[in-house]
Amino acid sequence: MSRVFGYRAFGGPEVQFYFDRPDPQPGDGEILIRVRAAGVARLDHLLRSGLVRALNGHLPFPQVMGMEAAGDVLRVGAGVTDIAVGDAVFGFALGGAGTYAETTLLPAANAARKPEALPYEWAATIPVSGTTALDGLDRLNLPEGSTLLVNGVGGSTGQVTAQLARARGLTVIGTGSDSKRAVAEALGVSFVSYSAGDVPGQTRDLAPAGVDGLIDLVGGDSLRSVAALVKDARQLVSAADATVSELGGEYLPRRLDRASLETVAALMVDGTIDPHITRTFTFDRSAAALATVETGHTAGKLVIAVSP
């Protein structure tokens, strides 16, 4: 048996609770891991709230929170030949297995070995935050010297996007709340404050001719306010709002594969990317970790240390 943190129905924090479940058995192509660290993502509370039921509306309750994990392999399923018991790994928990859990399943194809130099906590930030940034920049494929606007630069994905973009020789403009200005500017970002109002006007002051690419991590009205700033709408991608297609852009296609995980891990090891973990919570404070992210004001990444 292992302890997990999840929710009994779609709703707010009142539906969350801890419960015990038998250790899941790895099927074909799966691995069972002891979770050392779990990343806390905005998607976690959206799934619990029932706002993205295309992803979890078909799953039975109770559901387990989380999609990002790093840990040690306890068992491997049939067909898994490239990951072995005892390996330190990280990856995506798909199909509802969850990661706010003492043990969980990862598809081997969506997991990678953890480099020895990479802490478990850092590895646990890669599956959602790290690879979203990689996917966005690879999709735009902007040449060196181009100007990129990151809408929502202060969060974990935004900060990784900014670091990777700067490493690729891009000029980065980023929007966010004033509380995230210092962190963004330390990364070399030209910061545009939501609080100061007229976000499009502030951005035009920095890029009078518009921007060459736009990665949106917020969606909704915030996306619509800045969408016209990109010179070519085909260079607009959103990881937060599928209606971006109405603006001529594209909902970001996601690669959840091992190669992407390994790419981001290598960039962390060589110092190109720092996930900026601002706080680590113990497993018994999972609700507090999620509540902190749910405010929308978190700068950087939060992690749950499940099994130290």
Description of the molecule:
It contains ten helices and 16 strands. It has 308 residues and is α/β, with parallel strands linked by helices. The protein folds into two domains: 2-124 and 275-305, Medium-chain alcohol dehydrogenases, catalytic domain (Quinone Oxidoreductase, Chain A, domain 1, Alpha-Beta Complex); 129-251, Rossmann fold, CATH 3.40.50.720. The strands form three sheets. Strands 3, 5, 6, 7, 8, 15 and 16 form a seven-stranded mixed β-sheet that branches. The chain has a six-stranded parallel β-sheet with strand order 11-10-9-12-13-14, with helices on both faces. It has a three-stranded antiparallel β-sheet with strand order 2-1-4, with no helix packed on it. Helix 8 links the parallel strand 12 (213-216) and strand 13 (236-238). The longest helix has 15 residues, at 126-140.
